[in-house]
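Hi all, posting the design record for the shared folder.

TITLE: backbone redesign
STEP: 1 of 1
STRUCTURE INPUT:
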């Protein structure tokens, strides 16, 4: 139901929530906390390098090149996050995340191309 001016009806609960002092003061705190939570993807990139090292010891630079770059961007993101520059930290973390997932897909494709599933399972069993 709208009034004569065509405005949408007002909801009383929304007005009460807006006038509540605690709700207004808690909102910036939640936004600041959310801004501080930046996952730099440092450990996943390092883990991917370790997996590439285990599988292809001598040619790890060929199989995990994007993870090396991802570690670089993740370290920069971590540094920005420590200083309090959350905007640049989030940008570098996004780059590190994209590099991680791109290299993860690349590494998975190489494993499928070079190893048959039976050979891969026997290789994993030999590690255990």
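Okay, here is what came back for every position:
SEQUENCE:
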């Amino acid at each position: 139901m709208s009034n004569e001016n065509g405005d949408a009806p007002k909801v009383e609960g929304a007005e009460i929530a807006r006038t509540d002092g605690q709700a207004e003061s808690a909102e910036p705190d939640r936004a600041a906390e959310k801004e501080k939570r930046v996952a730099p993807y440092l450990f996943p990139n390092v883990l991917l390098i370790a997996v590439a090292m285990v599988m292809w010891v001598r040619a790890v630079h060929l199989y995990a090149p994007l993870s090396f770059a991802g570690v670089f961007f993740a370290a920069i993101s971590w540094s920005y996050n420590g200083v309090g520059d959350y905007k640049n930290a989030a940008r570098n973390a996004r780059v590190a995340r994209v590099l991680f997932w791109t290299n993860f897909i690349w590494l998975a494709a190489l494993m499928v191309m070079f190893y048959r599933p039976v050979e891969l399972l026997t290789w994993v069993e030999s590690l255990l």
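COMMENT: The mean pLDDT is 75.
Let me know if anyone wants the other runs.
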